[in-house]
TrEMBL record:
Localization: Cell membrane
Gene Ontology BP annotations: iron ion transport
Protein name, per record: Iron complex transport system ATP-binding protein
High-level lineage: Bacteria, Bacillati, Actinomycetota, Actinomycetes, Pseudonocardiales
Originating species: Prauserella rugosa
GO molecular-function terms, A-Z: ATP binding; ATP hydrolysis activity
Length: 272
């Protein structure tokens, strides 16, 4: 199967009278996991929203297999590209099962009925995110972490070739952060799903991505394999943070250790 090609060509986008990203070029590696990192307000979410066509570019284009995504019929695009935005809002009173089921709407035809394939997709998504036991509960009664896993389940139920996720580990404890990222890695390995995600945790981004993109002030400062991008010099430029980068003894990927003003080892004080 041919892998989808998602490209930003001279992309300029922003809000009201302010451009956040300008003339940005990006080719998303097909069939791989790409993580986007950077300081707050550097343009990460703006880039993701533009790639998904949630935000219309002021200049340039976003192309999927050579076709402009903003000219595609919405349902056709939604069968190929899924988005989990920051802080999505569920309709009041909707149950978990119904919300996850909405991920199947792009696959519904006019006058078509809910199918066994739809049931299977929803069940698989609930099982994968460990939310099956929550199926009958209203979403607005859930904790923040439970809600986030349910939204991820809805995105998985959509079963798209490309999945864009803006901070998918928000509200999750460490255990569930790792579980979600393991799940996305499994999805990439078993189905070949192209995944692009915005992450705040540099070490998780380096561990779980094939390609790392570091942004500064609306532009791409560095892009490449995690070992090429997660360096002490790049972290200082992108985040203004002094650090040491070592090899993660578990994954073999780069591991960033922040120094900070009180993080450095202090010399022992003489006795007496």
């Amino acid at each position: 199967m041919t892998q989808p090609q998602l490209v930003a060509d001279g992309l300029t986008a922003g809000y009201q009278d302010r451009s956040v990203i300008e003339k940005l070029d990006l080719t998303v590696p097909p069939g791989r996991i790409t993580a986007i990192v950077g300081a707050n307000a550097c343009g990460k979410s703006t880039l993701l929203r533009s790639l998904s066509r949630l935000l219309r570019p002021r200049g340039g284009r976003v192309l999927l297999d050579g076709a402009a995504v903003h000219a595609m019929p919405a349902k056709r695009l939604a069968r190929r590209l899924g988005l989990l935005p920051q802080s999505p809002i569920a309709p009041e009173g909707i149950t978990v099962a119904d919300l996850v089921g909405r991920g199947r709407h792009p696959h519904q035809r006019v006058l078509s009925r809910w199918s066994a394939a739809d049931d299977d997709a929803v069940a698989d998504a609930l099982d994968a995110t460990e939310t099956a036991e929550l199926a009958d509960r209203p979403v607005d009664e859930l904790s923040g972490g439970q809600r986030q896993r349910v939204w991820i389940a809805m995105a998985l139920a959509q079963r798209t070739e490309i999945l864009l996720l803006d901070e998918p580990t928000t509200f999750l404890d460490v255990n569930h952060q790792v579980e979600v990222l393991d799940l996305l890695t499994d999805l990439n390995h078993t189905r070949g799903t192209t995944i692009v995600m915005v992450l705040h945790d540099l070490n998780l981004a380096a561990r779980y991505s094939d390609r790392l993109i570091a942004m500064v002030d609306g532009r791409i400062h560095a892009a490449g394999e995690p070992g090429e991008v997660l360096t002490a010099a790049n972290v200082e430029t992108v985040f203004g943070l002094r650090c040491e980068v070592i090899t993660d003894p578990v994954s073999g990927r780069p591991l960033m250790l922040p120094v900070g003003r009180h993080g450095a080892r202090q010399p022992a004080q003489p006795a007496g």
